[in-house]
From TrEMBL:
One of the record's GO cellular component terms: cytoplasm
EC number(s) stated in the UniProt entry for this protein: 2.4.2.1
Gene Ontology biological process terms, A to Z: nucleoside metabolic process
Reaction(s) this enzyme catalyzes, per UniProt: a purine 2'-deoxy-D-ribonucleoside + phosphate = a purine nucleobase + 2-deoxy-alpha-D-ribose 1-phosphate
Name of the protein described by the UniProt record: Purine nucleoside phosphorylase
Protein family: Belongs to the PNP/MTAP phosphorylase family.
Binding site for a purine D-ribonucleoside: E194, N236
Length: 272
């Protein structure tokens, strides 16, 4: 048994001892978007600081707990707050919860984030379906020995964001009368926001949005063979496209659009 699988066994045993049973969908709720977990029925809440091998989350707007239960008729295990590379966690730690979701039986993960809009047609408050990503973190959570029981040495990333799930999300948006933009998410390490020059480069490279999360988790989801739905909230225009950037604006925008965000995820989940 590898070190990783031993750790996973301990973590999953603990989580199951708290009453968590079947998990269908893992959910990672980004900055300001954690409120969706409050709608989970028959909820079991497990603070991160009780979970073996979980670090504690520190960023404003992140609660730091797992919430398990039923949402839109599906068994979900949601992270209210995630771990970021810029907090000093290793890429393996950042992505450990995705391994845990897979070990608990999840077949899919719904990944959400707050990010900056690079595409000039985007405005703050837009929701964006992630069609693909660019890993610009300079890191990869799969560097190191490969555990073949988890996934292949060289995972295919051709369809990291599951095509059928994207179609379902678009149908859900239409049904709700919501505008859902689509685009490529470019992941930086942070914690600095990008410079205007970096944003011009990102646009030339094909990015529609930039952020400091999601990419590592989706890489590990792909490695584990999980299906992925990614939804971004464009909380601000990226550097050089508006006066200045700050975390308060990020939280304010998520606050403003959280109803639409929650409806979209719930409606999509109903049909997945
Ligand atoms: N850049 C990177 N991450 C972000 C941004 C941004 O503009 N907004 C919210 N998260």
């Amino acid at each position: 048994m590898t070190k990783l699988s031993e750790m996973l066994q301990e973590t999953t045993q603990f989580i199951q001892s708290q009453g968590v049973e079947t998990v269908e969908f893992g959910m990672i709720l980004g900055s300001g978007l954690g409120e969706l977990a409050d709608e989970i029925e028959d909820a079991i809440v497990i603070p991160y600081d009780q979970i073996p091998f979980f670090p504690t989350s520190t960023v404003v707007g992140h609660a730091g707990q797992l919430v398990y239960g039923t949402l839109s008729g599906k068994k979900v295990l949601a992270m209210q707050g995630r771990f970021h590379f810029y907090e000093g966690h290793s890429m393996q730690t950042v992505t450990y919860p995705v391994r845990v979701m897979a070990a608990l039986g999840a077949h899919s993960v719904i990944v959400t984030n707050a990010c900056g809009g690079v595409n000039e047609s985007f405005v703050p408050g837009d929701l964006m379906l992630i069609t693909d990503h660019i890993n610009f973190t300079g890191q990869n959570p799969l560097i190191g020995p490969n555990d073949e029981t988890m996934g292949p040495r060289f995972p295919d990333m051709s369809e990291a964001y599951t095509t059928t799930y994207r179609r379902v999300a678009k149908e859900a948006a239409t049904k709700l009368g919501l505008t859902l933009k689509e685009g490529v998410y470019m992941g930086y390490s942070g914690p600095t926001y990008e410079t205007p020059a970096e944003i011009r480069m990102s646009r030339v490279m094909g990015a529609d949005a930039v952020g400091m999360s999601t990419v590592p988790e989706v890489i590990v989801a792909a490695h584990n063979g999980l299906k992925v739905l990614g939804i971004s909230c464009i909380t601000n225009l990226a550097a050089g496209m508006q006066a200045n950037l700050n975390h308060e604006e990020v939280v304010e925008t998520t606050e403003r659009v959280k109803q639409s965000f929650k409806s979209l995820i719930k409606e999509t989940l109903t049909s997945l």
